[in-house]
Design a protein that fits this description.
Layout lengths: L18 H19 L15 E4 L4 E4 H6 L8 H4 L6 H8 L2 H14 L6 H7 L3 H19 L6 H11 L11 H25 L3 E9 L5 E11 L2 E11 L5 H15 L8 E6 L3 H4 L5 H6 L6 E4 L1 H14 L2 H18 L2 H13 L16 H13 L1 H13 L5 H14 L2 H24 L6 H17 L6 H6 L4 E2 L2 E2 L5 H22 L6 H5 L19 H17 L7 H14 L6 H8 L4 H11 L6 H13 L9 H13 L9 H9 L20 H18 L1
Parallel strand pairs: 3-6, 6-7
Antiparallel strand pairs: 1-2, 3-4, 4-5, 8-9
Amino acid sequence: MWRWLEKGSDSENASPSTSGGGAKRSGGDNRDEGKKKYARAFNPKWLAGREWLQYDSDNNLMFCGDCRIYTTPKHQSNNFVVGTNNFKIESVKDHEFARSHIESQSTKQAKATRVEDSVAVKSLLALKSSQIKKMGLLFRNAHAIAKKGRPYTDFTWMCEVDRMKGLEVGETYTNDYQAKVFVHYIAKEERRKMREKLSKSKFISVMSDGSLDSAVMEEEIVFVRSAREGKVSVDFVGVKSVPKPDAISIADAVNFIMTNEISAEWKSKLVALTTDGAAVMTGAKRGVVTRLRADRPHVLGVHCMSHRLELAFSDALKSSPMARKVEDLLSGLYSLYHKSGVHRASLKKCFGELNMTSLMPTRVGGTRWLPHLHKAVDHFLRGYAAFISHLQKCQQDTTLNDGQKARARGFLRIATDGGILKFCCFMSDVLHQLGSLSKTLQRSGLVLSETHSCMSSTLAVLEKYKSRPGPKLRAVLEEDAYEGIILTATNHDYHANTRGALLDALTHCITARFSDMSSTLLRAMRLLDFQYWPESDPTADFGDEELECLVGHFRPLLESAGVNASLILDQWTALKCQLYKEIFERTWPSINRRCRHNFPDVLDVFDCILSIPATTADCERAFSIMKQVKSDWRSSLKTERLNDLLKVQLSSPDIKDFDPCSAIEIWHADCVRSRRPDFVRQEKNVGLERGTESDSLSESDCKSDEME
């Protein structure tokens, strides 16, 4: 007990028999006192071979950098997480072999390892072939459900059908919940492919549009267009609901989709933003394009060419009373036969009596593109005899009331008017030209330079119609009957002037809507179109001015992409000489295959221009698919699930070409607990049916797997 006596105790009071021991203990106390005065310090040699160990000289603490980032919440109070000044090598070694530290090291290694190189994927490769085949069947079923827009609940009975066919699909992972999981990983694999492809592209452009879904929520959809080595590709990126369709909300939604699905640095590659012509999108001060462009003045804002043509045609029709009469007639006939099964059946009977193919009136209003109106006019002219026959029979039909007879009589009077019919033929000729132009402008890979050439040719045809009518109108212009039906006489000069006025209005409206196509920058983009190239050897300065204009506008973007702008003109001259000396297919992919190694910088400029989209028709087509997927019966579909389904429908291969191996690898690796394709739980209740119990059990097991 002597070691606990205070330092100044009197030795005379000690027992004589213990005096020697007391002297020894006194010496021991002096040694303890010396130890207390010694301060331990961190030894830098401990860092050798220990990358995880770090020393904070300001606070005189050592800690584990890996455990601070990757440890579990229950180990957050560990000394090597918060920091310790217990500078002993034994403490360092104890933490090095601690279970919490080993788990943190494993987590760090797993996050740094590619999914394809992870231990889980390597274990997947060691699976039995029967298990891989089983999961392939399940993933193919899930892919087919998403590709065809079927509900997830179909997955269960599809697996049951596979069992009845003798296919081994197992008892686990065969419920509708797991179908959602499989579709998610299929979509995840498609997103990985898209990110990998876009990471190799130096230039991208964004297409965005909005629409209401079945739940009356504003959805903003985003596509991205890229060009690499002359090959243009368009990819669906994502869809997101916006709380309010204003510029701030839409811009935030587009930025969120692009950042999450592609990269946080997506704006550094941005060339153009293509939208519709709404003021909220194209506003010069606070529009979506202006907000996303920010401090990058080289980013172009492109108004969808298909929308421009639609707006130009709509503006021209407003000035033509005869065109409004034709639209009223077609709309009235559609309403007459669409809402009455009796009239529809009688019309089909008239078609049969005349040995004609049944052509029902189609909707005029509410459609987006010009070919729909052309279809309505075409059906009216081709089925004209049957329509007139049925309207005449309505006058003698005793089952119809006076109001119905009067309505049919009014349609009959307008339809047999010679001026109206000839104007319908004239509109058919005009709509055929505008419809062809509209279809061209809706092509996914359309280039801006093609827009100018197609529009010029269409305007030339319309100008010719002023002096020489189109084929439909020429056939009836000098006739008093059509399809055997006598037409009422009309004022030919008046109708001729009406047709000329509509052609003038169309030419004026189209020219006004596409006025920016004559700008210097857009005219310079015609270098992409080989129609503008000379047939023989070009002059020394051919294309130099246009190329200088393009390089001057996109110089910041080109330099950030690693393009040497000072070499572009020299490479352009050499490229022209080589293209005219060698004979091969003049397409940008083939030119890149043969010449990229010699002229990389000038071909990068053309890739930049090729990446500019001229239309948002891809967004419109995606909205049509979205309304089929998120129908009235599935109006509560969440945004995450909607994105997965649209990604599979729009980006994944067809059912016959789908390979599930990559998606299975990601699914197998993305789980802490091991997957159990062959797991079979014993039935506890004898009276319970096999399928019901296995499905319920497998669903709970699968959910626990996903949560872990």
